[in-house]
Structures are given as structure tokens and as C-alpha cells.
Design goal:
Order of helices and strands of chain A: HHHHHHHHHHHHHHHHHHHHH
Oligomer: heterodimer
Largest sheet of chain A: none
Strand order of the largest sheet of chain B: 2-5-1-6
Structural class of chain B: alpha+beta
Radius of gyration of chain B: 16 Å
Structural class of chain A: mainly alpha
Distance between the termini of chain B: 11 Å
Radius of gyration of chain A: 24 Å
CATH topology of chain B: Alpha-Beta Plaits
CATH class of chain B: Alpha Beta
Organism (chain A): Pseudonocardia charpentierae
Strand content of chain A: under 5%
Family (chain B): Belongs to the YciI family.
CATH superfamily of chain B: Dimeric alpha+beta barrel
Number of helices of chain A: 21
Number of strands of chain B: 6
Pfam families (chain B): YCII (PF03795)
CATH class of one domain in chain A: Mainly Alpha
Distance between the termini of chain A: 61 Å
Keywords (chain A): Sigma factor, Transcription, Transcription regulation
Number of helices of chain B: 2
CATH topology of one domain in chain A: Rna Polymerase Sigma Factor, Chain: A
CATH architecture of chain B: 2-Layer Sandwich
Shape of chain B: globular
Protein name (chain B): YciI family protein
CATH architecture of one domain in chain A: Orthogonal Bundle
Chain lengths: 400, 115
């Protein structure tokens, strides 16, 4: 028996694939979305009687294309009709896997085009590739639905009017453009991992969505080690999700986590990807971050290796946040005093960030400098908008 | 092919370039325009005089009112333009990048609705 839930599942799995093909056939994102939605409406009526077709994705694409052609015949003048019909029929090809793969890549690169703002890139990616509704995206990012709707309309309008091309970038542009795609997926993941605001520490649905998209990308670009590295990074971080929060929803730092609650399956998938990246030997920031998480996933943690990997990461991506994380690892090898010297050197760059003060607080606590630690915990708590993080910092201060 | 307007975003305040710097910029711009022509992308280019040389003609009912000065006082003004004819935004942005490098000022890349 095929029911609504089956169609909903196919929708989530195949929406992006179908829209990607239809955008190429129709040359317009809105028309493509409309056609695909109509095809799914037809599926809801048809499939309960006829059963699931052998290739649900193929059925959706064919139906969507036929509907688009019909609609066009109804709505356009005769001259336009002839011109358009020839265009639509040129692409009357079967749903061949290679061509579809290219279409999905085209769609990813269009959604993450550098001429679009980050929030537009994120919304488009979740909508068109993830098959999420406007309401779902709004819920995930805790923004009003009209805001998301407006972002999507404006972005699609710009794609059409400014003529953002629907293609995979040429080799010369690929590294930069791929970086933009990876950054969008990582942003979706990190927002899920520690929501910048709100009551819950982790928004698992957002992480799951980011992982689903990263899996797609890794599958579409198996020769790009950074795409594999990003997926590995997400899987390894995700493997510790359950252990990161206590039963009451409060935060548990890495060192104090109950390792039996880590998801070995996800961690092993992540480590396996890290090994694949190592064999390729074309390191990049996401791969090195994944390697660091892979070391963290083993017991006991080899902190010297973590420091060495942070040295590597700092060479590839010299940001203050990387330097802060490196300092934490140095603290585990050379003691909190050595780490504190490094952290204090980052005040100019990171003085406004809660993690800077939280790190100082932990180091000062371990050095037995309780008064200074208390001040640092307050400074940190004042600078986070996440309620769970704030509770954690207040609790730590209370324990001094 | 599609038309795009490349506008040079010129600051009103700040130190203007020295004559030597201006010479170097003009040389770069000449080279850039030659490259645009060679690529078949060039339609029109020009440098604009300062906004205080502008006059605005404004419909007021049946009348037309002339006002002295630009239509809006802003911290930046359009100091020059190029119109290019290229296949898509990626191609337009590539000319935008080259223009920004040649001139050393921000370049706004904007599609024509019709041309």
C-alpha cells in the first residue's frame, strides 16, 4: 500500500533531483518548482491505486515535464508555443543518471552563487535541494516565515533577472565556488550544532539536514577531498551529539562526556572518510578539522596529535578561532598556564566572543585562580545568546 | 547575450588620486576597454563629471522644474560607467573584477531589464 507518508518520503528524497532536471528543461526555477509540485499532487492521487512506480523520481520528472508542456500550450500564443515547444522537446531524454547528477550540481552551484547573500544561499539550498517548505526553513532558523518567503522570492528573482548561469563552474573557478558551497552546508550544520539563540543547545533537525546535503555533495563530487572532509567533519561531530547534553538538556564538555553514548557507527563512517582523504593527500581546512575530530573520537585522546593537526590547520586557515582551539589542545599537553598565555594573546581579535572568555575561565579555574575565573565566566555568559550555554557557564561559576 | 551596467562607485570625500596615480589608472582603463572590445563584450564606456555639475529635470504637473545639482546627495556617486554585452552574470562579474582591479574602486554590476 502506498500512502501519504510514502509520497512525502519520496518528496524529501527526490524533490531536489526533480527540480534540478526541470530547471534545465524549463530554464526557470519557479516554473520548475510549480511543475514538480503538480507532479507530486498527481502522485498523491495516483500512487495509492497504481502502486509505487519502478522509478518514482523518473515518474515525477516525466509527469512534471508533461504538465509544464501542457500548461505552456494552454497559456501561450501560437508563435511562442512553437518556439517553446521545440525547446522543451529538445531535452526529451530519459532520466539518465549522469545527466541528473550534472543537473543537481548545477543547482547546488546556482543556489550558492557568490552574488547571493549568505542567508539567501542557505534558504535556496534548503528549499530547492533539501525540498524543505518555507515554513520548515523558518522554523529551523527561528525567523518569521514571511522573512524566508521574501528571501526566496528575491533570490529567485535575482537569479532570473541578473542571469546567474545554471552550470557547474569551470575548473579555474571551481575551488572558490566549491568553497562557497561547502561554507553554506557547514553554516547550516554549525547553526544546528550550537544554535546562536533559543532554548535548545542542539537543533538536531538542522544538523540532519546539513548531513543529508553534504552526503549528496560527497556523492556528486567524489573526487573533491574537501567535500568528503566536510561530510566526515559533520559525521564525527554528530556522533557525539547525544553525549553533549545531559538528560536535563544542559551542556556536557567534551572531556566530561560519557563515551558510551557516542554513536560509533557515525564516528566510523567519519573516520573512514578521513582515511580516504589522507590517501588522496590534498589536505584542506575541512579535512584537517575532520582529522582533529577523528582523533577526538578515539580513547584516550592523543592531544599531541591534536596540537600537530591544529598547527596544520592554522597554516591553512590562520583565523583567531583556530588559534583559540589550538591553545585549548596545548593546555592538555603543556598545562593550563601555557595555554593561558596563548589565549591572552588573542584578546584583541576575540575579546567580544563568548568562547574566548569561556576558555579563559576554564584555564583560570584549573590554575586555581578562582576570582579571575569567576569574572571570566560572567564575561562569557554575558556574550552568548544560547540559553543552555549560559546555564552551563553560570553552573561552572557556581562550582568554583 | 545580455547587457550589464558596470558603475564605478566613487567616494565624494577623501583624498583624490595624484596626477601620477590618475595617469596609471587611465592607462589601466584604456587597456581594460581594449580587452573588452577584443572580447566582443564592449558596448559603451565613459567617465562622468562630478555630481555638482548635474542638473535634474523634474516633471511637476504639466511643468518641468530644473534643479541644480544631483538628484540625491550621497557619500558615493557614479563616477563612470561601462555597458557590456555578455552571456551571463559570471561573465559580467569577471569584467567587474577586472574593472575593480584596474580602477581600484568598487564596481556595481547590474543587469539591464531591457536594452
Amino acid at each position: 500500500m502506498v500512502d501519504q507518508a510514502d509520497v512525502a518520503r519520496v518528496f524529501r528524497e527526490e524533490y531536489g533531483r526533480a527540480v534540478a532536471v526541470l530547471v534545465r528543461l524549463l530554464g526557470d526555477i519557479d516554473l520548475a518548482e510549480e511543475a514538480v509540485q503538480e507532479a507530486f499532487e498527481a502522485a498523491v492521487r495516483r500512487w495509492p491505486e497504481s502502486g509505487l512506480p519502478p522509478s518514482p523520481a523518473g515518474w515525477i520528472v516525466t509527469t512534471a515535464r508533461n504538465r509544464a508542456i501542457d500548461r505552456h500550450r494552454r497559456e501561450s500564443t501560437r508563435d511562442e508555443r512553437q518556439a517553446e515547444a521545440s525547446r522543451l522537446h529538445v531535452s526529451d531524454e530519459p532520466l539518465e543518471e549522469g545527466a541528473v547528477r550534472d543537473d543537481r550540481l548545477r543547482l547546488i552551484f546556482t543556489c550558492c552563487h557568490p552574488s547571493l547573500g549568505t542567508s539567501a544561499q542557505v534558504a535556496l539550498t534548503l528549499r530547492l535541494l533539501g525540498g524543505l517548505t518555507t515554513a520548515e526553513i523558518a522554523r529551523l532558523f527561528l525567523v518569521p516565515e514571511p522573512t524566508v518567503a521574501q528571501r526566496l522570492v528575491r533570490a529567485k528573482n535575482k537569479i532570473r533577472k541578473a542571469r546567474i548561469p545554471y552550470r557547474v563552474p569551470q575548473d579555474a573557478d571551481l575551488p572558490d565556488r566549491l568553497h562557497a558551497v561547502l561554507a553554506v552546508l557547514y553554516l547550516i550544520f554549525t547553526e544546528g550544532h550550537t544554535a546562536t539563540s533559543g532554548g535548545a543547545l542542539v537543533r538536531g533537525d538542522l544538523c540532519a539536514e546539513a548531513i543529508r546535503l553534504a552526503r549528496q555533495l560527497a556523492e556528486l563530487m567524489p573526487d573533491e577531498p574537501e567535500a568528503l572532509g566536510l561530510l566526515a567533519l559533520m559525521l564525527l561531530v554528530e556522533s557525539r551529539r547525544a553525549a553533549r547534553t545531559a538528560p536535563d538538556g544542559s551542556l556536557v564538555p567534551l572531556i566530561e562526556q560519557d563515551r558510551s553514548r557516542w554513536d560509533d557507527d557515525l564516528a566510523e563512517q567519519g573516520r573512514d572518510l578521513v582515511r580516504r582523504c589522507l590517501r588522496r593527500d590534498r589536505p584542506g581546512p575541512y579535512q584537517v578539522q575532520a582529522a582533529i575530530q577523528a582523533v577526538h573520537s578515539e580513547t584516550p585522546t592523543d592531544w599531541r596529535q591534536v596540537v600537530a593537526l591544529y598547527d596544520h590547520l592554522l597554516a591553512l586557515a590562520p583565523t583567531p578561532m583556530v588559534a583559540l582551539n589550538r591553545a585549548i589542545a596545548v593546555g592538555e599537553v603543556d598545562g593550563p598556564g601555557a595555554a593561558l598565555v596563548l589565549v591572552d594573546g588573542l584578546r584583541t581579535a576575540l575579546g567580544d566572543h563568548h568562547l574566548f572568555h569561556a576558555t579563559r575561565a576554564e584555564l583560570l579555574r584549573r590554575l586555581g585562580r578562582a576570582d579571575e575565573a569567576a569574572t571570566a565566566y560572567v564575561d562569557a555568559a554575558d556574550r552568548t545568546r544560547n540559553a543552555v550555554e549560559r546555564d552551563f557557564l553560570d553552573r561552572r561559576r557556581g562550582e568554583l | 547575450m545580455s547587457h550589464y551596467l558596470l558603475s564605478v562607485v566613487t567616494p565624494t570625500e577623501g583624498t583624490p588620486p595624484t596626477p601620477e596615480e590618475l595617469d596609471a589608472i587611465m592607462k589601466n582603463v584604456d587597456t581594460l576597454h581594449r580587452e573588452m572590445r577584443d572580447a566582443g563584450a564592449w558596448v559603451f564606456s565613459g567617465g562622468l563629471d562630478a555630481p555638482d555639475t548635474a542638473t535634474v529635470v523634474r516633471p511637476r504637473g504639466d511643468e518641468l522644474l530644473l534643479t541644480d545639482g544631483p538628484f540625491i546627495e550621497a557619500r558615493e556617486y557614479v563616477g563612470g560607467i561601462s555597458i557590456i554585452d555578455v552571456p551571463d552574470l559570471d561573465a559580467a562579474l569577471e569584467w567587474g573584477r577586472r574593472s575593480a582591479r584596474a580602477i581600484g574602486l568598487p564596481i556595481e554590476v547590474r543587469p539591464f531589464h531591457w536594452a
